[in-house]
Design a protein that fits this description.
This protein is about 45% helix and about 15% strand. With about 350 residues, it is an alpha/beta fold. The chain folds into 3 domains: about 10-55, 434 Repressor (Amino-terminal Domain) (Orthogonal Bundle); about 65-165 and about 300-330, Rossmann fold (3-Layer(aba) Sandwich), CATH 3.40.50.2300; about 165-295 and about 330-345, Rossmann fold, CATH 3.40.50. α1 crosses α2 (about 20-25), α8 (about 165-180) runs parallel beside α9 (about 195-210) and α10 packs across α11. GO terms for molecular function: DNA-binding transcription factor activity; transcription cis-regulatory region binding. This is LacI family transcriptional regulator. It comes from Pustulibacterium marinum. Pfam families: LacI, Peripla_BP_3.
């Protein structure tokens, strides 16, 4: 049978000191509370000897802080979110916090379940890539004094701290590059979504198509439909129905990876002839043949701006600052897939 979990009362009794003294020492406040080095050393050495582990939940109830933050994303295995998670982890650790990561799969039900779970554990704040209808839950958290920063997407008409990119301008930039290199029949592949980042990318494509008197050729895949083989079949039908197209703009990196596979199976020559741009840089796009031009989001800057907003809210819980939006520019990483045909080595 396992023994009873050791508490600070047990430690205090064993050392014949007060519970308050033990608490101050374990929370790094010995000098501030004028506790002698000798007593502090005895407490720390005893805790090490008995392998004492503090009860994080109880500690958070006492101090009002758990020093734990949550990063909730659509899919933590996605390269874009995984890279952001690494930046967040480093920034959090540097500032005395730990990060928890989770995937909501763009599901409101799962998002709410996860937030309920983390709320029971008294996490200090959230960075959320929100599912479509999460605005009321975000509002509820803010009203409870729990800081939230939205990332990648936001809710129209809903005031909240947000960090993202100019999605429409990013699409326009990609389209401008294609037109400059002689591509005039560009397809657009995205998901059926009412979320702001995807709508922005779609609108940017439409703006550029209109400006260049280009016919719009758009494939929007249902999010629930994102089963690889089914998506590949839809992509194949779309590409074959638009056989005269000379270029493609993919709205996400995972659609680009599937699209490249489909194009290769249709015709490796076609793959090398098409002008191809994808959102979100990925190391694979640098080693594919051809290498793929990518719209690169400034991940490190996004992480830094997001954490700055969150830390500012944590420091000013009693007087929360006005919601702020930070919108950043993207960069086009030009590779072989958008070279003019005359400059390509097939």
């Amino acid at each position: 049978m396992k023994g009873k979990r050791l508490s600070i009362k047990d430690i205090a009794a064993a050392l014949n000191v007060s519970v308050t003294t033990v608490s101050f020492v374990l929370n790094g406040k010995a000098k501030e509370k004028r506790i002698s080095d000798e007593v502090s050393k005895r407490v720390l050495e005893y805790c090490k000897k008995v392998n004492y582990k503090p009860n994080i939940l109880a500690q958070s109830l006492r101090t009002g802080e758990s020093k734990i933050l949550v990063f909730m994303v659509e899919d933590i295995s996605n390269y874009f979110f995984a890279k952001l998670a690494r930046y967040f982890e480093d920034l959090a650790y540097t500032n005395g916090y730990k990060m928890l990561f989770c995937s909501n799969e763009n599901s409101d039900k799962k998002s709410n379940e996860l937030i309920r779970l983390f709320s029971e554990r008294h996490v200090d704040g959230y960075i959320i890539v929100p599912s479509p209808n999460l605005s009321e839950k975000v509002k509820e958290l803010e009203e409870q004094g729990i800081p939230v920063v939205l990332l990648d997407r936001y809710f129209e008409g809903f005031e909240a701290d947000y960090v993202g990119i100019y999605n429409d301008k990013a699409s326009e930039m990609g389209m401008k590059h294609l037109v400059a290199n002689g591509f005039t029949k560009t397809l657009f592949v995205s998901t059926q979504s009412t979320q702001t980042q995807m709508l922005g990318r779609l609108q940017g494509y439409k703006n550029a198509a209109e400006a260049n008197k280009m016919d719009e050729k758009i494939l929007l895949l249902s999010y629930d439909f994102l089963e690889k083989e089914l998506v590949k079949e839809e992509l194949k039908k779309f590409f074959e129905a638009n056989n005269d197209a000379d270029s493609i703009l993919f709205a996400t990196n995972y659609l680009a990876k599937l699209g490249l596979s489909v194009l290769k199976n249709i015709s490796s020559t076609k793959l090398h002839q098409m002008g191809i741009i994808t959102f979100d840089n990925h190391y694979l796009f640098d080693i594919t043949c051809p290498s793929i031009t990518a719209i690169d989001q400034p991940l490190e800057a996004m992480a830094s701006e997001t954490m700055n907003l969150l830390f500012n809210k944590l420091k000013n819980r009693n007087m929360p600052p006005e919601p702020k939006s930070v919108v950043l520019d993207t960069q086009l990483i030009v590779r072989d897939s958008t070279l003019p045909i005359a400059e390509r080595t097939l």
